[in-house]
Amino acid sequence: MSLGSRIVFARRLGRKGLLVLALGSFALRAEGQSGSLPFGLIVSEQAQTSFTLVGAGARAAGMGGAFTALADDATAASFNPAGLAQLLVPEASAVVDFTRHRDEYRSFLSYDQVPVLGLSDTTVEFDHTAFNFASVTVPFELFSKRFALELSTQRLVDFTYEGTRQFEEVDAAGNPLFLLEQSSFQSGSIRLYSGSVAFQPTERTLLGVTVNRWDGDWEMASTNSEQSVVAGSERETFTYSQSNRLTGWNVDLGLLLTYPAFNVGVRYRTPFDADYEFDAALETNIQTPLNPLPPTATKLHWPGTLNVGVAIKPTDTLVLAADWGRTDWSKMVFDVPGVGHVNFFDLKPPEETNAGTSDDWHAGAEYLFFVGKTVVPVRAGWFREPQPATDAVTGDRVVRTGLSFGTGVKAGWWAIDASLRYSTASAQVSRFLEADEIASGNLRATSRGDLTRTDWAAFVSLIVQIPSGSAPSRALHEIFVGPSKPKS
After folding, report:
1. What is the pLDDT of residues 111-139, one digit of tens each?
2. Which of 165, 180, 413, 430 has its CA 20 to 30 A from that of 380?
3. Could you tell me the CATH number of the domain that includes residue 123?
4. Entry pTM
5. Measured between alpha carbons, how far is 380 from 13 in angstroms, rounded to an integer?
């Protein structure tokens, strides 16, 4: 494939940033060497996808994502499968979201030259709309106990990113010397296909389990170019692309304790070993010792996540909720041929990785207004979500914090919820910007500066309840549970 066609291919790809996704799995092999150069590190440092594993739904998003101890609608399984046992009638749900992403790069310096050279500021922006979640839930009684079954699908990790960073490298007097450009394109997601069952063994206790099929498919491409401002100079270009495939199975376990004044919820997402495949390619007009690894199939260990939530109910119309989640991303490792175990986020050995434990916090409130028989909720929330790894050079971690607001309408058997979420993060980061620097195989990022990341996200959910005894309700019961027994 020519360089031109490779770039065209790259521009067809999509968002969230050149891979911190380890997309990593891509090590490049240096000819004449027995080992491999973890070129993926260069790629993965360019941007970071959010790996905070939260549930779905506009209602929960409006409450900052604090829903583990509530989980009382058709999106429950994505937060705490135990909550499904609270449902009294069949429900179906669908959720879509819209995101506007902005990265600002300021005060960057290039340490590749002596003296140090300054870089102009630049900004990346893009929009993205996607289908987020869908489910159908059927409650029923068995042995005088309340049960519920749910089938659902969720886009758990979104890799979409699309942007071009353009820098001018200038001398001390502000005169431009080189034009640097870095284009990052990424598309795809990791989606869950889930089956859940919940039951209520006692008046206060609800238990649930979800079996998840993980199905990940994403692509990425990164193009770095460098050109002197001198007329007639050659433009140096280095393009790297990679396709990735991930499949696996795991189980989520849920517990919900309900009391008149408060609830306590716990969800544990069990660790698992996924089948992980990747296929990489590069194109450059610069002499390089690097070659991509051949198509590779390996195992990726995905660590477990623990979520704990509390919901306080001061009145029948007010709920205050808070969630805490923890994931040890240092345990997310896979095998690279010729190298051994490496961390997914920075390709370092587990004992040297910059990835570590992330503690996520979410808090929110919901107040209900009644207009006749119509319910109009008002919601607000706050959240804090760290990235899995710190920057390899600066030691800073990108930590997203934000606020959310939401409302909706519930009338009869249907409800529509909408929410708006704003988040921001800032950190000093390092970047591999110069094409010849990457082609050389040098793993030392020589450009550093300030990154400010902002996101606006809108969520819309539709939940439809199916009246007990109706034809659709009887059909769902027949399909998922079996024939209803006539009452004596």
Report:
1. 877 788 888 899 999 999 999 999 999 99
2. 413
3. 2.40.160.60
4. 0.86
5. 35
